[in-house]
Design brief:
Blueprint: H1 10-13, H2 15-24, E1 31-34, H3 36-42, E2 52-56, H4 60-69, E3 73-78, E4 83-90, E5 93-101, E6 103-108, E7 113-117, H5 121-126, E8 136-137, E9 143-144, H6 150-155, H7 165-171, H8 175-186, H9 194-202, H10 204-208, H11 212-223, H12 228-237, H13 241-245, H14 257-264, H15 270-277, H16 281-290, H17 295-305, H18 314-321, H19 323-336, H20 345-356, H21 367-372, H22 379-394, H23 400-410
Parallel strand pairs: 2-5
Antiparallel strand pairs: 1-2, 1-8, 3-4, 4-5, 6-7, 8-9
Length: 411
């Protein structure tokens, strides 16, 4: 049996990881690290912040009992589905270990699965999505590959579904987007697996029926990738962009792939990258509905895409619209300049820098000042405050004495 090389497994050697494994492996039980931490270590992309998930043949109640006895903080984060979180600390930094009892699917409908606990490692591996995600590591680094293909696929630098690709997708249609995410995160330089791609194409209609929140989560992760533009192009080529982002993305509508490619070099923000993909403000509204964006996210899209960037009055834009809106508009303008029109690029870059360092000044006018000047409470006071605030911004944010003099003159 091969082992996880020490240079790739800093998270495994961590005392906190070994402590949890030691507690759960007592008395003949078996708990192993699984999934992304093992995969990323073998592919050389693990980071110090790599999340460590574990699989165990213990029932969740026993997991909690053992952790509590060892005085390890634990939370029943998903105990109905067999998941318990153990929380330890490295200095003041919390380390969260998700520990899930081995499971098999009883029934699935493409969105939800009814599961049963098991002690069968082969069965637990079979219910996972990709071969490279079904690798397990013991506390000493010994690797287990129940599907028989995970290690080979990592060596070949490919992402493949476990067994029949169509069957895995029918268990959860979100796996279509997960396939594109993992491929373009881990193996963007190689061809996509033909069987996986064909199965993804056939899932376009049921993919549309997934909840907007689940699609949003995966799309934002895809947009966070260094090769986000390549992933988006591949989704469009496979006729999958429309069922995910909404009907506006029809074949006849031009999608801004070049603008997205430019944006990947300008900003890491996944929502901003998604904006760069949109051909119009109408598309933004469709996107917001399809992905069930929050009110805060929708407001950000509206401010960035439906309001012009006034570079001539940048302080006013920063004050009234906010630094986020100014930065978004400036970056979108920079990304749109992919055809050589870069005359105002320095000005746009300066706007981005100003937004990043912006601290909003406090308007010094108070109600007491207006009352002292003879204004009674009511609409007139509110109108005066709004007018004075516009004046104050236009004048370059003068001090309170200047505001006082202007108030007295206006009254």
């Amino acid at each position: 049996m091969t082992k996880l090389e020490a240079k790739f497994s800093g998270w495994l050697a961590r005392p906190q990881t070994q402590s949890v494994l030691s507690v759960l492996n007592a008395d003949g039980a078996t708990t192993r690290c699984v999934g992304g931490c093992v995969r990323d270590a073998l592919m050389g992309v693990a980071t110090p912040d790599t999340e460590v998930d574990m699989a165990t043949d213990l029932p969740p109640q026993e997991v909690m009992a053992r952790l509590k006895k060892a005085k390890i903080k634990c939370v029943p984060t998903g105990i109905k589905h067999g998941t318990v979180s153990a929380i330890l600390y490295e200095a003041d930094k919390p380390l969260v270990y998700e520990i899930t009892t081995l499971r098999v699917d009883v029934t699935t409908d493409g969105r939800h699965a009814e599961i049963a606990f098991t002690e069968d490692w082969q069965g637990d591996a079979a219910r996972r999505d990709f071969t490279i995600n079904a690798l397990y590591a013991d506390a000493d680094g010994t690797l287990h590959d129940p599907t028989g293909h995970g290690l080979a696929d990592i060596k070949a630098n490919r992402v493949r579904f476990i067994g029949d690709a169509a069957a895995r997708i029918e268990e959860d249609y979100l796996r279509v987007l997960r396939y594109f995410r993992f491929h373009f995160r881990l193996t963007p330089a190689v061809e996509m697996d033909a069987d996986a791609l064909a199965a993804c194409r056939t899932a376009a209609v049921p993919l549309r029926g997934l909840s907007g929140e689940r699609k949003q989560q995966e799309m934002l992760k895809i947009m966070a990738l260094p090769d986000a533009d390549k992933a988006a192009r591949a989704l469009q080529k496979a006729d999958l962009l429309r069922p995910v982002l909404g009907p506006i993305f029809a074949e006849a509508v031009p999608v801004e792939f070049d603008m997205l490619a430019a944006m990947t070099g300008l900003a890491n923000d996944p929502l901003l990258r998604l904006m760069a993909l949109l051909p119009s403000t109408e598309a933004a509204q469709t996107l917001a509905a399809s992905l069930r964006l929050s009110n805060k996210q929708k407001m950000r899209l509206t401010k960035a895409m439906e309001m012009p960037l006034d570079l001539a009055h940048l302080p006013a834009a920063l004050y009234f619209d906010g630094a986020q809106a100014v930065a978004d508009r400036a970056l979108l303008a920079l990304a749109s300049q992919t055809q050589g029109n870069v005359d105002n690029a320095p000005t746009l870059q300066a706007a981005v820098a100003a937004a990043q360092d912006y601290v909003r000044p406090k308007f010094p006018l108070t109600g007491a000042m207006m009352q002292k000047a003879g204004l009674a409470d009511g609409p007139a006071m509110g109108q005066m405050a709004a007018a004075l605030e516009r004046w104050w911004v236009a004048q370059g944010f003068p001090d309170v004495d200047a505001v006082q003099r202007e108030l007295e003159e206006r009254v």
